[in-house]
Amino acid sequence: MAKATDNTSNAPTATSDYLIRHATLRQLQVFEVIYRLGSFTRAAEELFLTQPTVSMQVKKLTEAIGLPLFEHVGRRIEPTEAGVELYEACRRMFESLSNFEMKVDDMKGLKRGRLRLAVVTTAKYMAPEMMGDFSKLYPGIELALKVTNRDSIIERMHNNVDDLYIMGQVPEGELEVQSYSFAPNPLVMLAPRDHPLVKKKNVSLEEIAKEPFIVREPGSGMRDATFRAFDAKDLRPKVRMELGSNEAIKHAIVGGLGLSVMSLHTILLEGIDGPVAILNMEGFPIMRHWYMVYPKGKELSLVARTFLDFAIEYESKITKRMESILPSLKYQFSNTKKKKKTKK
Ligand code: PGA
Q1: pLDDT digits (tens, 9 = 90+) for 1-39
Q2: What is the best residue among 121, 124, 245 to mutate for testing ligand 1's pocket, by most ligand atoms within 8 Å of CB?
Q3: CA 268–ligand 1 middle distance (angstroms)
Q4: Which atom of ligand 1 is nearest to the CA of 216?
Q5: Which residues have C-beta within 8 Å of that of residue 246, sequence separation ≥ 6?
């Protein structure tokens, strides 16, 4: 080890020389993702590769190292001791490379560079458009967007995978973060258009608790927010179905499988007169916000800092869009603004 840090000698150690000749950065990257996600399939998805390619890369890396990196435990894969050590080495290496890349990007200004954004699923209805507008200003910046649920966003943040994150609720206790509230995310109760409660005013949560209900999968922020709303009234929803996608929930609502709490953004394209209707409910919309988040202490690239400022400026555009779908929100938005002011 001492040899590797001794910069008076420029001969690499026998092992590192061997690995440099026999392993590639791409193989190490594939290994790192499999380790982090605990699955070859999910790694292939994240890297936009086929599963045979992923397996082949790991096979070659295993041969170069001369020890197995993963073992199968039932249907799961577990890293071996060599795998754990390699993962630590990869993390250090990739962190240095990514810091280096960031410095080089900063030297090039905003003409070049990359922004990796990861967002919770409700934000997928807004993030691509925001990125599109950003890209008009900075066409040379390469953009990557990952959409996943709250739990995996927190995991990605732990592993420092992306530049910035958009979440519906800032992590508390799980991780120390820097966060900026930047756009409204009102939650509404959705029902099929022909449901008897659609014509009613001031529907109570007690009435909803009698109806079949659809919730998101464990790990979803929307699921937590929904249960919190019921808990606050000492109620439990009558869960008929659990679904891992907002779009699938919309279709399930239309199919008459139940009602659900969702972000107003999810019906942005079809509007409020589409096949899913917003119920006029007591205590709704639940006024939530999205936050731009990143781990405390993380050094942001110039591109990420610029995007962060851009997102904060973007709030008024999103607010206007929300008001145009649901004009009654105007009153709530101005109330929130007043509260924000008095807080200061
Ligand atoms: P989810 O998060 O995708 O984890 O449900 C949505 C949100 O918190 O707004």
Answers
A1: 444 444 444 444 545 688 888 999 999 999 999 999 999
A2: 121
A3: 16
A4: 5
A5: 121, 122, 216, 222, 262, 263, 266
